[in-house]
Design goal:
Elements lengths: L2 H22 L3 E2 L5 H5 L3 E7 L4 H16 L6 E7 L4 H6 L7 E5 L2 H4 L3 E2 L6 H11 L14 H11 L3 H64 L1
Parallel strand pairs: 1-3, 2-3
Antiparallel strand pairs: 2-4, 4-5
Length: 225
């Protein structure tokens, strides 16, 4: 066998094994029973799917390749949940349609997860995963935290259950106040916008009246000439 043929044969053999490896790989399967163990101290990117969903089947090979690329990550996990089997888990996480992609902090049963709404091609998913699947600031891992958050966590650790509950309520009230302020200020902006828009439409109508009169005069003068 010549060197050229040998090289081609070896390349084809390596390519075959690579394809076989990818095709035989499947993303980690999360269930209600293994959720805490599999996601412990990790940031996750999870595909919630069903068996007979056409879009789920289309996403499947892409998701498997994505999961394979993060297979050896110490702090990130790309996984999936079969909602046909994990009905209760999917319901608790407010999964309405499939496929639904959630990412973020999986602690406390996944209540902090956020829904991914971007394009689902491999390149975009890979770029997004590389950005979000990083060590997360949590009460169990404060090293990625900012100095302020790390200091707060240390202070909060010494608080009583009642005091922490009170603080949570206070923070939730602050969010509600911020949302109310946003809505009210947005209404003011909308009112200003409406006023400017009305003035613009009136001015445009006035100018169009002028233009129509001027064109009528031009037509009249042409006929006179």
């Amino acid at each position: 066998m010549t060197n050229t043929r040998l090289t081609a044969f070896l390349f084809a053999l390596v390519n075959h094994f690579m394809i076989t490896c990818i095709c035989s790989y499947s993303a980690s399967q999360l269930t209600a029973e293994n959720w805490n163990e599999m996601t412990h101290r990790k940031t996750v990117f999870v595909n919630f799917r069903t068996e007979h969903c056409a879009h789920c089947r289309e996403l499947g090979p892409v998701w498997e390749k994505l999961a394979l690329s993060f297979d050896d990550s110490d702090h990130g996990l790309v996984a999936e949940v079969n909602c046909d089997k994990e009905v209760t888990l999917c319901k608790e996480l407010n999964v309405i349609g499939t496929p639904t992609l959630y990412y973020g902090d999986p602690s406390v049963g996944g209540i902090f997860l956020e829904e991914f709404g971007g394009d689902r091609d491999l390149e975009n998913l890979s770029d997004f995963a590389a950005e979000v699947l990083v060590p997360m600031c949590t009460i169990h891992n404060i090293f990625p935290c900012s100095r302020e958050i790390a200091r707060n966590i240390r202070d909060w650790t010494h608080m009583s259950f009642e005091k922490i509950t009170e603080l949570v309520t206070e923070k939730e009230d602050e969010i509600k106040s911020a949302e109310t302020l946003f809505v009210n200020e947005n209404k003011k902006l909308q009112a200003v916008h409406d006023k400017l828009n009305n003035a613009h439409e009136l001015e445009k109508a006035r100018m169009q009246t002028h233009i129509r009169s001027l064109k009528d005069l031009l037509t009249s003068k042409k006929q006179t000439c």
